[in-house]
Queue: 4 jobs
Job 1
Amino acid sequence: MQAIQTQASIGKMSLTQRSTFSGKSVAVARVSPKAKSAFKLNIVAAKELVFEVEKPLGLTFGPKSGKEGGVIVKAAKGNSASAGMKAGDQVIYHSSFFGDELWPADNVPFTNTAVKACPGAVDFIVIRGADIGTVNVKRLPKRPAPEKFARKLTEAQKSRATHLCIDCGFIYYLPTPFAEQPGSYICPQCQAPKSRFLGYDPETGKTIGSGGLPPVVAISLGLGLVLAAVFVYVGLEL
């Protein structure tokens, strides 16, 4: 039996083989490289719309058709409609359980569980119109929640706004009174401890307990104290 002679190539060239068995030449079937079909979608939508919705949300979700998955707003009533959300919107992000980051909305059961567990208002990022279906939510990473500092509060939020984090400016307006939060409570925006919150007057926009300073000034003073403590510590170490 003679040795097998092989000629192989990739891409534009052909792949052929001929083998000799018992003096007879036998052609081996021609093999052609097969192109893999790719499913490609954008990761970033052309236009994202951001909404903050108070509870009760008034939203009904349904699954988006197609292998990329996703969540569609089937109905938007009450607070969600007032915020600007509409039936037919595709939700690509929503608040997580703790409110400090946004999670991709790739299936309805998870989205329902997450938004129900959120302690306060829920943030949504949606796309609509021609942009629907252009985002593969299964490939999206988590995203930081929108910053609350300097955001205009709704009347409902103002009625509950009692404290402000002097490290980042987060205004506490969750349904649970601030005094009832445990000592282990941390700011959902910057993870500062509960002790870093000051009383806040939503009507004047000033803090309570710091001489009535505006939030920006109170935050600056807070950062100054932290930096001063760091310098003192470094000086003692040296």
Job 2
Amino acid sequence: APNFGGGNVDWPCFIFRKLAKPPASPPQLVMAAIKDQNIPGKVCFHGLGAAEAAQNVLAALQAKARHHGDAKLEKDQYDRDWDCVIRNTEMTSGRQFAGLSYFPKNRPVLAMLNAMNEAGYKLAACPNFGGGGAVSWPTFVWEKREEPVRSALVAIKDRNWPGKVCVGGVSDASLREALLRGLDALATSRVLAQKDAWDQDFDLAFSGTAMTTGSVPFSLQNAWFPFGFPLEVLVTEMGRRGWKVVGGPNFGSGRDSWPVLVFEASAQRPRGR
């Protein structure tokens, strides 16, 4: 689900695949949108299985993520286009005056992803809505396939000093060493495998990374354009351990943009290698 636009506009798009042998009935889909730039925070669900999905995600948030004791299923007048809504959520860091605004929180996002996986859903797309240079609404579309999978995510903090790559859902020692070696070889400064006060919610964190061209004042180069080689390192090393990229939601607001890679692996595969 690529996202086009720039500046004050966003044009979310979908790419469809045609199956050589389509099933007799259409797939069961559930869509969810994170509404963290709102008071209260919400996660909105729509689809044939939305009620069950929202209940499962609510239970997971209350059990596995901090600050969700007051979360509940409740709609208001702004939610009429949605089947179910979880209210009082904190899926991101929220508005920060001295920090990273609306950076995704590992535990609640993973709780949502894995709750959907446990109900038999696999992630199919992550369109991003928003615009006006001020809002971003990360959205998830799942397809029910009854294939046991589990999720992990990688969040990229290039609009930060130092640049960081944060990993949630997997903490394999061999992955840590492989990513450290690969990212360090491609960065202009030393990359360290360490977490600070802002990264405690994640399983792994690498600081000093360079995933994009960054800010390029007084240059004809495009700012924040992704580098191919470090992204290849991430995808390849995760792939060697059974993790496949299935989506790329985008978090943030205004001038801050936090790209995320969502991975899925077989739930029957042992953790690590």
Job 3
Amino acid sequence: TNPLIDELAHKSRASFNTFGPSINALAAAMWQSVMRDGKPERPLIRISLAYGSKWAELLKMSWARWAAAGIRASVFMAMDEAAVAACVEFHLICVASSRASVLHKYSLATLALHLGVDVVYADLDAVPVGPGNPLETITAEKSSTNGGAVCEGLPDLVVTTQNYDCLNAGFWFARASNRTASFFFQLLDYLHEHWYEGDQRTLNAFAIGNVSVSFTDSWRRKVPRLCVATLSPDVFAGTEGFNDVQEVK
């Protein structure tokens, strides 16, 4: 074999092939959910992205805050050396990738939902606040709609708007089912093919339909209609970016 070709192939796999590490991380998080968080019937994991030294400093605080709310089963997508170093230092469950992309959160969520695992996605600056247990608020939310019609039973997707007109892609909860697994697979497929569309606008277009994206009509036929519930803005807070990590509580 050619050593140069072998080296290039190794670097390519290390950069782009995160499927195996993702499965390993999800398996470890599922164990945490069942054994540590006490959710044997419906495992629940949290996913977050980490990129840059400022955000890497938040990893330990983010894990601790969510663990206090009942979710120790967290998987971080570590997209640079600073994030990977934080993962190693604090023994966190992480998937290392040298290619930073917002799509990683949808890839991990899609894998988890296909495995039957409920998913909370939260940006590192989205933290649970307010009285009571925010985890119970998420999973017990029942007021949901499907294209304007009221749904019966628990919703497929729980979102927050932070008092804006559209849902915030920085925090959502997806209940594992055939519908949500298919929804996120189609969403991810769309975002890969239409890379010029933003993920938040696309998530709004597919989940709620209050905005449009390119080729909406042809893609909506492929996407299952979900029952979507909106959380009170008092349950979660975001810093909208930050200057000092000590200000993030």
Job 4
Amino acid sequence: DKQLLAQGKPMQRSMMQQRMQAPAAGSRCVGSRTALVCRAQKGQQQQTSLAQRMGALGAAAVLTLSSLSGTAMASEFDLLAEPKPAATSYYLDDASVLSVSTKGDINKKLKELEDKTGFRLEVVTVRKLEYETDGFAFSEKLLGNWYEKTEADNKGILLVITASKEGALVGGPSFLTAVGDELLDSIVGDQIPIYTEAEKYNQTVESSVERITAKLNGEVVPDGPVRPDNTRRRTYKTKEETDKSKGVTGTVVATLLVIAVVVPMLQYYGYVAKD
């Protein structure tokens, strides 16, 4: 046993010397085989770096797109996901622009209207629309989500969009017939834009509700506001204008996605060509 231990010690020393004399990984590349290994390691490092850059660019593109439309879209989807309003509530102030007194007056007047005539009007405020930019189309979707087709016959929605200073008035067939085109055009084309441009949102809602309830109750309808120059200005978008704006938005999104994909690939091919 002592002889075996004595013979094993020189062998261990020899192996330790060989390990100490071997070049450290990544320190130097000597010999053809070692040079190939080093090249492979460098190539893997470059590919990893490119993958990281591509991932960073992709994440940046996603964040950019989200910052452009994430907030507005979330607000619109939240509104469309809202359940049918309670029987005693006649407003949905998503833009947070209505005072406590205005909300109380709205509930009182519209409750009396529904009890007397059967017509029900909901007031909705929203800061901005981006996914469905047409106020009439958005209001009709909201009405369809809240009520069945037959149930919506005598229901209506008054929409006020604070950022674009415009609005909409939609409803079922019986509701729109009772309101009439003249009053609808006056409220949407003049009353809402004039008051919202001055940021008088409470007056916008209160005066619009007052005129609509008077019409539905068969009473004399108060006169609406008039611009100083006596000109009528259309603030809501036509279908053609809405389709055009959607096309521009789609082009911007497609361009950002192309940049996020093509640029990293060009960089990758540039590194490969150099090698």
